[in-house]
Amino acid sequence: MSSQPDYLSVGLDRLDAFDAIVDVRSPAEFAEDHIPGAINCPVLDDEERARVGTLYKQVSPFEARKLGAALVSRNIASAIETHFLSKPKGWKPLIYCWRGGQRSGAMTIVLNQVGWAARRLEGGYKVFRQRVLDDLETLPASLGFRVLCGPTGSAKTALLAALAEAGEQVLDLEALAAHRGSVLGGEAGTPQPGQKAFETRLWSVLRGLDPARPVWTESESRRIGRLHVPGALFERLRDGDCVRIDAPLAARVAHLLERYADLIADPADFCSKLDRLAMQHGHEQVAAWKALVAAGAWSQLAAELVVRHYDPAYRRGGEGLYRRLAAGRTVSPASLDTAALGELARRLAAGG
Question: What is the DSSP string of 63-114?
Answer without folding.
Answer: HHHHHHHHHHHHHHHHHIIIIITT--TT--EEEE-SSSSHHHHHHHHHHHHH
